[in-house]
Amino acid sequence: MRITRRQLRKIVQERIAHPRDGLGKNIADAEFPIVVGYNLRGQDQSEIAYNQDELDDILDDVANSGMPYSLDSLEDMEPGDRPVGSDIEQYTEGKMRITRRQLRNIIRESLNEQGNIGASAELTQGPDREAVSAAWPDGVTHNGENVFKKFYDSVGPGGVDDAEQWMRDEGYDGQEVYLGYDPQSDMFVMGFDAFLEYDQDSEMEAFVVGLSPDGRARETITTVPGGFYSAGHRAVKTAMPQIIDVRLD
Fold this sequence. Notes:
alpha+beta, 2 domains, five-stranded antiparallel beta sheet, 13 strands, 29% helix, globular
């Protein structure tokens, strides 16, 4: 169940955060910058909030997912344990980093796994967006093969790794934000918020890659100024009117 930001503020203002390293704080006493600590899939992670809006955004994901969390003073943390930026999360062991967008995807997919067991959507049968969303990630298939595993959880070449490499070969670097399926061409489409890798002054663009059903990147469909949402998404819808939105970030 999703709660509003106002309801969340009211709840957390009355609750003491779970202690972490003896530095647990009450949200009502938060002094910025502050570190939100939580445990995701067995790994301790943390993220910096520099103001109330950023803290609200983080807690919208973390608190609503039911995960225990803590609020810690950035100044009190050891330098080696501090997250490295406002848009970065950091595992306490191994220094593995994920973006806030990836955190939200993991949480949403975990909640979907818990709430939509048994739902299914076969893309070749033309399901609507609601059916795909209800079945994601375990129940969305293409010719019987799980789409999430093919494009996001595969071992070996293909999927998002293949699309990212294709994008880098074209001189861009970016973050994956979209997956769609076009039944007319029997092709998948992966969208990125991207920047020209060797131009520090470049503006964000949408970079759109076409992939075959086996998960391999085949072509650059388009690049559009302004990021994938909404310029890139609109361009894809125009070029492929029958496209099925499989994953919207």
